[in-house]
Amino acid sequence: MAQAHNGDNAQATPPSFVPSGTRRKHVSADTSHTAQQSSTPPSYAPASARSSSNATRRTHASSSAGSVQSQQPQSFQPNRPSASGQRSARRSSGSSRNAVNAVNAQHNLAGTSPKPQAMAMQSVRGGGAVARKRGHRVRNIAFKTLAVLLVAMLLGGFLLWNWVDGKLNKSDWLTSKASTSGTSWLILGSDERVEGDNTGGTSDEISGYRTDTILVLTKPKHGPSSLISIPRDSLVSIDDTYMKINAVSQFYGQVQLVQEIEEITGLKIEHVAQLKFGGLENVVNALGGIELCYDQTVSDPYSGLNWEAGCHTADGGTALAFSRMRYADAEGDFGRAARQRQVIAAIMKKSLSASTLTNISTLNNVANATLDALSVDSTTNPSTLISMALAFRDASGSSGVSGSVYWTDPDYYVDGVGSSVLLDDAKNLALFKSLSEGTHEAGTVGTLAEES
Fold this sequence. Notes:
Layout: H1 2-6, H2 8-12, H3 31-38, H4 47-60, H5 68-71, H6 96-110, H7 116-167, E1 169-171, E2 183-193, E3 208-219, E4 226-229, E5 235-238, E6 241-244, H8 248-252, H9 254-265, E7 271-276, H10 277-287, E8 290-294, E9 298-300, E10 305-307, E11 310-314, H11 316-324, H12 332-351, H13 354-357, H14 360-373, E12 374-377, H15 382-396, E13 401-404, E14 407-414, E15 418-423, H16 425-437, E16 443-445, H17 447-451
């Protein structure tokens, strides 16, 4: 019997696990070797054992159906030796990561250490993953910081906008005239005087509210911006009554004043900004003074200006007297209008300078002083004021257009009115048309400019 012949070793191995080749009648005499082979699955047997076993199976197998290899799945069959005696290499079918994993798995089964190349690949790949994670964290922090800054800026801008808009003294100024080319602002300087106040005029001038500074600022879509003065003594007619234009607002209202300006210029006035002379003094002081130039030495008792010829840093009181003085000026009201343009241009330049914009305390003082002294139309907002300031800066520069309107008689006398300035209506309409369309070249304009 087979059991009696194999003894204890045959009983230790269940018949179902004995290789098919050993279950045949002719069993190898080395029963201990056969039992050792049968205890290890063929796919995990050492290479030398597999070789001898293959040789035995090839000798005793009668067909491919009785072969051990034919009963094993293809993936578990050992690689056949090549003609040179070396095992043929398997083709790579995966990524470098799979290759590294496969190498590590083989070394784990064999009980050896992985090759340095595999360890280097793993190290480089691990370091790259750490660098990528660190890069993601840096980008996330940057994006979050940027988002916080943007939200803070938007919130700050919103609060600043509401603060400025809430402090603006708005009222009705505008007419129903249709829009024209470009954008035009009417900039006014008012002087509220009391009875007997001779500052800037004679003792026989009536007391009350006067518009002593009238400037038309125009920014075309393309071309140079312009800043043109209209003399305070310009003659106008309302309801067949003649008067100087500086008295229109007091007797007929501010909308009527805007309408008179629109008739002189032919332009639609989009926005109005009026600054009180007392407020001008406060603005200049908040700025720490402005640079003004005048080539005459003056000691004028009417305006209170005491000036030595040349350029000086003027405080608020000096700047106010500088813009009011006319009796000591050979050009009279026309010279005063030119100095008024210089004062406002100097205020705008200093207000928009880096030294002011980067000094929070100065900027706050200037904003408060300006908003307290300013009156605007009902459609003006902070954006409108910024656009006006930038247009004013451009018009006052070398690439802008400045000057006065055209006139035919600077001393035209009318009963009940006195000496007035008679304007040249046709030339003024043509002038402002070209200014609004941006076709006028940079420089100085007006009758006084042509005569000089």
